[in-house]
Amino acid sequence: MERTYWLEQGFNLRELYSRDRIAAEVLRLGKEISAAYAGEKILVVVVLNGAVFFAADLVRALRVPVEMDFVKLSSYEGTATTGNVLIKKDLDKSVDGRHVLVVEDIVDTGLTLTFLVDLLKKRGAKSLKICTLVDKTERRLAEINADFVGISCTGGFLVGYGLDLDESMRELSAIYEVIETPSGGDA
Ligand code: IMP
Q1: Does the pLDDT of residue 79 top 70, yes or no?
Q2: Which residues contact ligand 1 via a Cβ below 6 A?
Q3: What is this structure's pTM?
């Protein structure tokens, strides 16, 4: 499914980051992360659902051995943060004594990641680093920074390459800003 369908549904989407730009950032991140973990094995913790697309590409750009596990957290309803973070699906593996790399699609207020980082520390991770494809800096509430950042941007509501608006538009292969929704309001 590409953008045309959503334009026909009344969404106004502006392309921000092309598929090629994303692929280039993923390759760069793969090199940076591989250098940082040379000689180590890492446990990649993927934050469901959005980061699945990014994580699948990222791990294939790594040159260090990885295991993957998945966690599902919820802090959003629609496009506004609630500030409440719930574990909807926990990890299957233990992080105790492991080098853990958390992979997120986007960091916005930082509340979700703060919750997850605290949890993984309590569970005994040997080291903990964060990689996000998009770092949205404008609305940061928690003092948390990713160690590896694909793209920095200030604001807007983004969809595509895993990012969703109420579960829609994840499948778009570029990243778009939602300028207007069919109801006429901004996202
Ligand atoms: P935070 O806790 O505010 O940092 O929110 C992180 C989560 O909110 C991400 O994992 C996304 O699921 C969601 N999110 C934040 N900004 C956007 C956006 O622009 N588009 C889609 N999802 C977003």
Answers
A1: no
A2: 47, 50, 75-76, 81, 104-112, 136, 157-158, 163-164
A3: 0.93
